[in-house]
Specification:
The complex is a heterodimer of chains A (263) and B (282). Chain A is built from eleven helices and no strands. With 263 residues, chain A is an all-alpha fold. The interface between A and B is large, with 34 and 44 residues.
Chain lengths: 263, 282
């Protein structure tokens, strides 16, 4: 079931995990905007570095490194495409500045991946669902989201059972060419879909029996409240945004290039 | 006081050729512990669905006859209105829990009713304690055992403080020990909280001792109704396919073999053992 392991969220308690997901999301958006505003490597490197404390405070280094490694392929792709276009565009010549700007583009991508992975690594699905519920999104959507998350492991287990059952009856999954292999999965998918539909009917029945749709205004057992940490994060976000906008407006052309130190 | 009154009920699922419930009348008194049993496909589950209006509102189909539950005519009321009076616990514990924490699942019904948070908190804790799962409240429902999941399901209907709890084969996914624990929780609710319990169950071995109102169904009808001590002695019942408790079977054989054990029909092994010891004068 290793494929589905990544989708399971493990409960960890850290100051970062306890932050309000809405504030964390605003912070991610702020980093996102800042990364878009610059193409030079220096400010992007700073944006990369200021997120490291979050990763260590949340103690998710291992998963974080894994997600960066996952992004490495795309990052190198971006780097190569940038180098190649510069190379052809400048009549088959390549300068240190070109390499630096290609590196800057790659860095921007890495910063984006980094900030989103910190968000998803430190926000539990129920926290996220709760944030959805309490940010005026219709409850049906929030419910669909949490239910989907809730049933991922259940369906994964069921898929495994069906796979075992079909294999026991002689189905060979790893046989033939690509097309054949895809076709091999049909005897797994059909029972899985049928049982998922049956399950959804039972769920609907259980929801009805527990007064689904009784009150126009639904209440919630939990209330998301802002704590000290959330205010600190709001502060950090504001400072990052102010500095970004200031530098972008007034100092943009005086940002030094790393390569200019050498040449 | 009669809390459930069903008269001449005939119900056919949409697209079905013959009715699943075929002329059934049943009265259940407030505070009773009613046990319904019968072979698979005899209409037990359909009957359960009529108690809170899943039949006919959710399942459509053709319904004739009258169902009055807790003073409400089920055919006039929506299921969410009936949910305040009747709590339904289903067979598969996995498919009736939706939230990502036990506590939130127990609160689900109350959230739907729009209850203020402070009161909801109180009710949730109360229900968790009654079902004996207070310690599990922060866990995720899919990572606790089947028996615990079923107790979460019981707590979640309990939180809505219904007058009646209906359990449709709540232990068919559980091992005997977890099943027994579930029955004890249910029995306690019946005795201490005065909640009317309707339990659908095959395992009479474990449950017959709790009730004095047994209903045996077959082919959409009630064929026997009354005290289990009388019904389970009946010869015809073994032909329908009802799991008669082993203690009762042994008693019947002893009697047939000519032993005059002179005692009331035992419903559980403990009862039989106790009475046999008395007779044997050990």
């Amino acid at each position: 079931m290793s494929v589905f392991d990544g989708l399971k969220f493990r409960k960890v308690f850290s100051p970062i995990h306890n932050l309000d997901p809405r504030i964390k999301f605003i912070y991610v958006i702020a980093i996102f905007i800042s990364a878009i505003l610059f193409h030079q490597i220096l400010p992007l490197a700073i944006l990369f570095l200021i997120q490291l404390p979050f990763v260590f405070m949340a103690r998710v280094q291992k998963q974080w490194v894994k997600s960066l490694r996952g992004a490495a392929f795309l990052a190198s792709f971006i780097f190569i495409i940038n180098i190649l276009t510069k190379f052809f565009y400048n009549n088959w010549t390549l300068t240190a500045f070109d390499i630096e700007s290609a590196l800057g583009m790659t860095m921007r991508f890495i910063v984006l991946v980094e900030s989103f992975s910190v968000f998803f690594l430190t926000t539990s699905p129920d926290h996220l669902g709760l944030a959805l519920e309490q940010s005026r999104i219709p409850y049906e959507f929030a419910f669909a989201f949490t239910t989907a998350v809730r049933f991922v492991p259940v369906l994964a287990e069921e898929a495994q059972t069906i796979m075992d059952a079909q294999k026991a009856r002689g189905l060979e999954l790893e046989k033939g060419n690509l097309l054949k292999r895809i076709r091999n999965y049909i005897p797994i998918l059909i029972p899985l879909i049928v049982s998922a539909i049956r399950r959804s009917l039972e769920l609907a029945e259980a929801m009805e029996s527990r007064a689904w749709g009784a009150a126009k205004k639904r209440t919630n057992l939990y209330l998301l409240k802002l704590h000290k940490g959330d205010y600190i994060l709001i502060g950090i976000t504001t400072i990052v945004l102010i500095i970004t906008i200031y530098v972008r407006l007034f100092l943009f052309n005086s940002i030094p290039l790393i390569s200019s130190f050498f040449f | 006081m009669t809390i459930i009154k069903i008269s001449d009920l005939v119900y056919t699922y949409p697209g079905a050729s013959k009715p699943s419930i075929d002329g059934l009348s049943l009265n259940i008194e407030k505070g009773e512990f009613v046990l319904i049993t019968g072979p698979s496909g005899c209409g037990k589950t359909s009957l359960c669905r009529t108690f809170n209006g899943l039949i006919p509102h959710f399942y459509q189909g053709v319904l004739k006859g009258q169902i009055i539950v807790a003073g409400q005519d089920v055919t006039d009321k929506q299921t969410f209105e009936m949910a305040k009076h009747v709590g339904l616990v289903f067979q598969n514990p996995e498919n009736q829990l939706f939230a990502l924490s036990v506590e939130k699942d127990v609160a689900f019904g109350l959230e739907n009713l729009g209850m203020p948070r402070a009161e909801m908190r109180k009710r949730v804790d109360w229900a968790l304690n009654l079902a004996g799962i207070y310690d599990l409240r922060e866990r995720s429902p899919h990572e606790v055992s089947g028996g615990q999941q079923q107790r979460v399901a019981i707590a979640s209907v309990l939180a809505m403080q219904p007058e009646i709890i209906v359990l449709d084969e709540p232990t068919s996914f559980l091992d005997p020990l977890s099943a027994e624990r579930i029955f004890e929780v249910i029995y306690k609710l019946n005795q201490e909280q005065g909640i009317t319990v309707v339990l659908v169950e095959h395992r009479l071995d474990l449950t017959a001792k709790y009730t004095n109102h047994l209903v045996v169904m077959d082919k959409g009808k009630i064929c026997f109704e009354g005290n289990p001590r009388d019904i389970l002695c009946n010869e015809e019942i073994s032909r329908i396919g009802v799991g008669i408790p082993k203690a009762t079977l042994l008693y019947k054989r002893l009697k047939a073999a000519g032993f005059d054990v002179n005692m009331q029909t035992p419903l559980s092994s403990d009862e039989l053992a106790e009475q046999l010891l008395k007779v044997l004068d050990v």
